[in-house]
Amino acid sequence: MNNYTDNVSAVLSKYFDGVFNGNIELLRQVFHSEALVAGDVNGSPYFKKPGEYLDDVKNRKSPFELNGEFRMEVLAIEIINSIAIASVHMPMLDFNYFDLFLLNKINGEWVIVNKLLTDVAD
Q1: Between the chain's N and C termini, which has fewer beta carbons within 10 Å?
Q2: What is the predicted pLDDT for the residue at 30?
């Protein structure tokens, strides 16, 4: 099971690097094509497929480009067989995001199948 935790952590690390640096290709590697990104941003509902979400990331300045500090962290990972849930904290771009990722091991690879996000006021 520890190897699974390491593999899920590696997917989350790629996600963090992709978001922080605006690396769309890296992000494309970690999302399943049928994933859903949902939650709220500034109190408004947010529902996107991976392609739409990646367009949002591509069309904004990355935290790296804005000289932001990398402060993303994994809070918890729970794995049951071929599914996992990860809780992460992602303060960036004047937001204080808390995200939940649902991952599935498909064809031997862990991928994000759902991302839930919310911005918590400081």
Answers
A1: C
A2: 97
**Element housing 28 (H / E):** helix 24-30
| Type of residue found at 33 | S
Q: Are 108 and 11 in contact (CB under 8 A)?
A: no
Mean pLDDT for each consecutive 10-residue tract of the chain (122 residues)?
Answer: 85 97 96 95 90 93 94 96 97 92 97 96 76
What distances in angstroms separate CA 34 from CA 2, 28, 37, 43, 119, one per listed residue?
27, 12, 10, 25, 24
Residue 100 C-alpha from the chain's centroid: 8
CA distance 26 to 121: 29
* Tokens, residue 92: 């960036």
For residues 4 and 19, give the distance between their C-alpha atoms in angstroms, rounded to a whole number: 23
- Per DSSP, the three-state class of 45 is strand
Bridge-partner residues for 98, per DSSP?
Answer: 89, 118
Please list the residues that pair with 79 across neighbouring strands: 84
- pLDDT at residue 1 in the model: 55
Q: Which amino acid is at 19?
A: V
